[in-house]
Specification:
By secondary structure, the protein is an alpha/beta fold. It contains 23 helices and 27 strands. The strands form six sheets. An eight-stranded mixed β-sheet has the order 19-18-20-21-25-24-26-27, sandwiched between helices. Strands 3-2-4-5-7-6-12 form a seven-stranded mixed β-sheet, with helices on both faces. Helix 2 links the parallel strand 2 and strand 3. Helix 13 packs across helix 19.
């Protein structure tokens, strides 16, 4: 690529996320609060790798969810820091409550949005259904339709943000622009970028103890409307400033942008108006139509807020027909948000064109040059409606076939697990005793999972799910939070489940299941559903008990009768293994790289069973596939408590050979080593009393933590001399937690010597 810039630039072959990370590094931000979500996660991953190599001193704080990530960013920006964030889809929606707070109090920052479909149903592909939720948040929004623009707009965005004192979003298409690699130019010297942006100046320094300020005070009328008017004026200022910034950046880089960009729009009779990467594809369709003698053109917006109505009108005023293509719908409004705003702008400034709109490309559906041609033909045809969907199959009238029952009804004579409350003389009353629990004893329990799934070889999720479900004698209703367990079992239109199944997002699974359970119990009491025990089970993993911890604790405190099952694979595996709060200290992940300045994750793994036990629920336990009888007995106990008393919690150590970087054929041995080194001790807390169910030291099987770490590529580096201090700190923490369990278990009258060692 060539540039007219006087400043030296070098070529990068990279995707949008990579170019965003390069711009962020060159700008020299102070802090990034973030939470991994596809397809924006690569930004944090690339920046963490740069940190490990010593290329940036950016402080990166991994929040437990996007709402907290937005709060971290807000706090840092109030404190005067230069702050960056990145998110997508439901992550943006989860953070949305915080975003007007930041604009309303006028603190600048930049947030990259790799646009993606908003759930549900769950889809990780790119459309514009997320970014449109940001339209009314008071943030200027730049929309990049090329990888090069992602880099350039990130630099322009911060200068805009600090001059108008507003947070700014840089949006671009998920996967299309975020991941597809292109040849781009970047400045060779970081100083060029920093000189362009300039020094940060605080109008009201927060830490000035001699002149203390209050931020975010309570307002009623007339102050609130004055605040909003000032926000409006700031957006007007941004509208006036953007052309100057584009011109200034153009002189520096050789790439000058406008608010609106057109292709053969000067004499076009039909214009296709669209956002994002589709614009580049549409230009190919326009070229073909031009060769066939049709006066077609295309227009896109580089700025979504403030909306460039005047510039859009100037670009489109000569067209006879305009077709606005929306990659989202404002349901019930007769078009997506882009359509509505284009129509309003053209009417405001006296446009004469007939305007039609199509919703297209939802869920990342591909858009080809031929599609652009068909859309323009649709616009030209006077018989077509003003609004429609493009490329759909409504599926109306396709009734599902009657497939019959998946398995015979569950009856007591078919299963032999026998979890009951102890009432016999000489035994402690109130606890649950399991009469069966061996693998053979559960053979009669029908399989709730169909054969076949999309999990990686050696994945522990199906193993743990089958052990859990074969221990439950009653009918089961399942709720899965987002994660690998959900993704590999429900690829539409197929499902692996032979029982009622519901999915909801990480952050709200337990609350959703509590509502489902309570409505079932209500209907049973009213005679609207047949009586009988049903075990409601939420399955969580892949970091779901980080972002979903608040929902789970709230559910537990309320005491709903359900079972929370966590398969702990120690990371956000479904998004490519970013660190979670359950990742071992020192472990390598895509957001905790190992390098000259980093040794992996910097803090200890979260003790979720004890957190749940603090909610005073009747039963908490840990289990592992290496001890299957213990697993089944605990699962049976958890199910019994879930149907009789309240919330139960069961956690299993779950293998992930892809991201643990070990041998799928030896995962059971790896799990066993995790138990024997006491990183994952097996115990239960029943009615407040703690009991170790397996003591590797008593069984003569206890091993150092490094023996387990050496079995996995993600932690093998901790066994070297360079990282000995990290490994020793992990060993001390593991020993401290285990000794506490032993002490608590010994003080419990339920402690007994069992066949597994204690």
């Amino acid at each position: 690529m060539e540039s007219n810039s006087t400043e030296k630039q070098v070529t990068e072959y990279a995707g949008g996320n990579e170019m965003a990370a390069i711009a962020i590094k060159q700008i020299g931000y102070d802090l990034m609060g973030y939470y991994p979500i596809t397809p924006s996660t690569q930004i944090a991953e690339n920046l963490d790798e740069m940190r490990a190599r010593g290329e940036t001193d950016l402080m990166m704080i991994a929040a437990e969810g996007e709402h907290s990530a937005a709060g971290i960013c807000y706090g840092a920006s109030v404190g005067g820091g230069r702050v960056i964030n990145a998110t997508s889809a439901n992550g943006l929606l989860y953070a949305l409550e915080q975003l007007p707070v930041q604009s309303g109090t006028r603190y600048p920052m930049v947030m990259n949005v790799a646009c993606r479909t908003v759930s549900g149903p769950l889809s990780i592909k790119g459309d514009h259904s997320d970014i449109m939720y940001l339209l009314n948040a008071g943030w200027p929004i730049l929309f990049a339709h090329t990888v090069q623009q992602v880099y350039d707009f990130n630099i322009i965005a911060l200068k805009l943000a600090e001059q108008v004192r507003l947070p700014v979003a840089v949006a671009y298409d998920g996967f299309f622009t975020s991941h597809q690699k292109r040849r781009c130019l970047r400045f060779a010297d970081d100083k060029v970028v920093r000189q362009f942006i300039g020094e940060k100046r605080e109008v009201y320094p927060f830490f000035d103890q001699n002149n203390p300020i209050t931020v975010g005070s309570y307002m009623n009328e007339p102050d609130l409307i004055n605040n909003r008017y000032q926000l409006h004026l700031a957006m007007c200022q941004a509208d006036e400033l953007l052309p100057k910034l584009f011109e200034e950046y153009g002189a520096l880089s050789g790439r000058e942008y406008g608010k609106v960009e057109g292709y053969f729009r000067e004499d076009a009779e039909e214009l296709l108006v669209l956002l994002g990467s589709s614009y580049e594809t549409a230009k190919e369709g326009v070229d073909k139509m031009r060769r066939n003698g049709k006066k077609a053109g295309a227009v896109t917006l580089n700025v979504l807020r403030p909306f460039p109505g005047k510039e859009l009108f100037a670009a489109c005023k000569l067209a006879d027909t305009m077709l606005v293509a929306d990659r989202q719908d404002s349901y019930g409004a007769g078009g997506g948000n882009l359509s509505l705003e284009v129509r309003a702008a053209m009417q405001k400034y006296g446009g004469r064109a007939r305007i039609k709109s199509l919703v297209y490309g939802l869920g990342g559906k591909d858009f080809f040059a031929e599609d652009a041609e068909r859309m323009l033909d649709f616009a030209r045809d006077t018989e077509t409606p003003d609004f429609d969907y493009y490329g759909v199959n409504p599926g109306i009238g396709q009734e599902p076939a009657d497939q019959g029952g998946f398995f015979a009804p569950l009856t007591e004579d078919r299963t032999r697990i026998g979890a009951t409350t102890v009432t016999r003389t000489g035994e402690t009353p109130g606890v649950v005793k399991v009469e069966g629990g061996s693998l053979n004893a559960t053979a009669a329990v029908p399989k709730r999972l169909a054969p076949g799934h999309g999990a990686c070889p050696g994945c522990g999720i199906p193993v743990n799910l089958n052990l859990l479900l074969r221990a439950i004698e009653n009918p089961v209703v399942l709720l899965f939070q987002t994660g690998c367990g959900m993704i590999v079992t429900t690829p539409y239109p197929k499902t692996s489940f032979k029982v009622p199944y519901l999915h909801n997002l990480f952050q709200n699974g337990a609350a959703t299941l509590s509502g489902l359970a309570e409505i079932c119990y209500r209907k049973q009491r009213k005679g609207e559903l047949p009586p009988g025990d049903i075990i409601f089970v939420m399955v969580s993993g892949d970091g779901g008990m980080d972002i979903g911890m608040g929902s789970a604790i709230g559910t537990a405190l309320r005491g709903h009768r359900l079972l929370i099952f966590e398969y702990d694979n120690g990371g956000y595996m479904n998004t490519g293994y970013q660190l979670s709060y359950s990742t071992p200290k020192g472990a390598r992940s895509s957001t905790s790289h190992v390098g000259v300045n980093q040794y992996g994750k910097t803090f200890f793994h979260k003790d979720m069973p004890r957190i749940m036990a603090a909610a005073n629920i009747p039963y908490v336990a840990t289990a592992a596939e290496s001890n299957p009888t213990d697993f089944i007995q605990k699962a049976a106990k958890a199910a019994f408590y879930a149907k009789t008393e309240g919330t139960a919690y069961l956690k299993a150590l779950s293998a992930c050979p892809l991201n643990w970087n070990d041998n799928p054929a030896t995962e059971r041995k790896v799990i066993e080593a995790g138990v024997n080194c006491c990183f994952f001790p097996l115990y239960e807390i029943e009615q407040g009393a703690t009991r170790l169910s397996y003591a590797p030291d008593a069984a003569g099987k206890k091993i150092p933590v490094t023996d387990w770490l050496a079995m996995m590529g993600r932690t093998k580096h901790l066994c070297g001399e360079e990282y000995r201090e990290v490994a020793e700190s992990l060993q001390r923490e593991v020993d401290r937690r285990y000794e506490r369990l032993k002490t608590e278990s010994a003080s419990n009258r339920q402690g007994f010597i069992g066949r597994d060692g204690l």
